[in-house]
Amino acid sequence: MRNKDHPEEDxxxxxxxxxxxxxxxxxxMLQWLVTLCRMDICYAVSSLSRFxxxxxxxxxxxxxxxxxxxxxxxxxxxxxNGKFASLVDPWEQFIMDxxxxxxxxxxxxxxxxxxxxxxx
Length: 120
Known about the structure:
The chain is mainly α. The chain has a domain at 7-71. It has helices at residues 17-35, 42-49, 57-61, 65-71, 90-98.
């Protein structure tokens, strides 16, 4: 997005139904890219996604984000959760917090259910 750009003040004509659908499709794909760690485009995508209900030609022309993605295809935000792993197992913390209050409780599992593979 350009500095001091205000898409909410756009007064260009509304898009026709075909271009409206195209706009929504492009914005939807961009939202998925943000979800897949392209946080560098988050602000621009969220700013333009506000106009999904009634986009204008000016909003469509602001979809230069695709050019940015083509120019910088390998930029991404990589998150390594290994550095932030807790030393205390959350399940053990849960048991410590509630073991004295609910010591009588037990989980009843139906016989036809498969055997759980996680913590028991």
